[in-house]
Design goal:
Organism: Sphingomonas qilianensis
Number of helices: 17
InterPro entries: MFS, MFS_dom, MFS_Na/Anion_cotransporter, MFS_trans_sf
Pfam family, one: MFS_1
Radius of gyration: 20 Å
Strand content: under 5%
Keywords: Membrane, Transmembrane, Transmembrane helix
Largest sheet: none
Order of helices and strands: HHHHHHHHHHHHHHHHH
Number of strands: 0
Subcellular location: Membrane
Length: 413
Amino acid sequence: MTEKALERRRWIIVALVFFAIMLNYVDRQILALLKPTLEAEFRWSDGDYANMISAFQFAAAVAFLGTGWFIDRVGLRLGFALGVGIWSLAGMAHALVSTVGGFVASRVVLGAAESIGTPAAVKTAATYFAQKERSMALGIGNTAPNIGAIVTPLVIPALAVAFGWKAAFLVAGGLGLVWVAVWLMVRVEPVAADAVKPAPIKWLSLVRDRKTLAIAIAKVLSDQVWFFMLAWLPDLFHRMFGLPQGTVGLPIALVYGMAACGALTGGWLPTRMMAAGWSVNRARKVTMLIYALLILPVTGVLFVDSAWAAAGLLGLGLFAHQGFSTNVFALTTDVFPARAVGSTIGIAAFCGNMWSIVLIQLAAVSLAHGYGYGPLLAICSCSYLLALGFVQLLIPVIVPVADDGSDALVIAH
């Protein structure tokens, strides 16, 4: 096969990962968008809803401890297919339940299975792309959650109105099963050949590594913002601006459209800096600083009267989040060999998801006591500068590992 054909195949892999992560976020966001309908039908409280979201986050967090290892141990190809297949079936199971307990159980399985998406996506970039190309591949892949978050509010309410809320869960899950079949048919030659093989990972070495701690703290401080927004944005627009379910999808689509642009620029900007001769260390950290500063104005949402002005400020915030997040993932592939990336991201994502439960529950408490969304938006605005401070403290200089896997033995044996 020619080099050009191999290059095309690698970008087919990016497209497949993009679609899988997009479906991942469609499946998890359906509940938030159908909250008013399901709340009326099943008489849920805000506390019931927060508990469902927290159950999803907790299951995903615990599973991250195993799914990163699972991807590294079983291999990317089979591991990713199993994860998408299970989460698709769990998503479809929502259509078969009618109690709070039933929804919680479905969310638990969905969250556990969907946790495979993040380590699999980052490991894909480390496996199929050289270091200089990974930021762009990750940037494209990291737009997927935003596209999913755009498509979902535009399509799901209309689908639910036309065919009932159960159809929304069944269609999204069915598309995931189609993805599994296509993924198993496509074969691409990896850049890091050792990364696609099952690999024993010495977890104690990873946990003790200051670089793992830096990435974990960055995930904690950035993930809490993302998951808070994902869970509560529809309610924020409904509560602050009186938008009903039929129209709330439009400003939310704008928010996540801007977030998608942030993911793309998050991959493009450091790539251009490195092409201009900047070191990986300088390019990565300056890029992260830019995004950390861009989210500071998000608290201005409290002082605007227009839903579209609020969407612009929230969109700028998630633009910054996705640019920052893309570079946290890229930082992982900078400093760890490809065969250990899945486990490292799994550990960091566990920490991020567990802490996100705190902010999700804090939102319910803040609303119940009349404080509104102000305290939560203030937390969002300062999280990224704090995250970058910890990265600088724990990784003063980013020293990229070799693309050929020569550093892998340090961790793997």
